[in-house]
Amino acid sequence: MTTAGAPSTAALSAADRCDRCGAQAYLRVELQSGGELLFCAHHAREHGAKLKEIAANVVDETHKLSGTPAIAPDGER
């Protein structure tokens, strides 16, 4: 397999949006055929099995959804 460049390990940001619904993306799938797809956690779970079949690299940041925000008021930490 030949790729055009090294896999991207850059963190996803709030500007990265799901290719299916436009929600914030938490999963980047770099395809074996080139290019990439971005998914929110919901669509990542929905299409997970198929994505694993076609992925060359996956950046999964869905763990960010379970943490307490850094700006949480006292008593919510």
Kindly describe this structure.
A 3-stranded antiparallel β-sheet has the order 2-1-3, with helices on one face. Strand 1 (27-31) and strand 2 (36-39) form a beta hairpin. The radius of gyration is 14 Å and the shape is elongated. The chain has one helix spanning 41-54, and strands at residues 27-31, 36-39, 55-60. The longest helix is centred in the middle third of the chain and has 14 residues, at 41-54. The chain is of the alpha+beta class and 77 residues long. 18% of the residues lie in helices and 19% in strands.
Give the SSE layout.
Elements: E1 27-31, E2 36-39, H1 41-54, E3 55-60
Antiparallel strand pairs: 1-2, 1-3
Strand content: 15-25%
Query: Largest sheet, if any?
Result: 3 strands, antiparallel
Q: Which strand order does the major sheet show?
A: 2-1-3
What is the average per-residue confidence, as pLDDT, rounded to a whole number? 85
Poorly predicted runs are 1-5
Kindly state the percentage of residues in helix. 10-25%
Order of helices and strands: EEHE
Quaternary state reads single chain
- Taking the alpha carbons of the first and last residues, their distance comes to 46 Å
Number of strands: 3
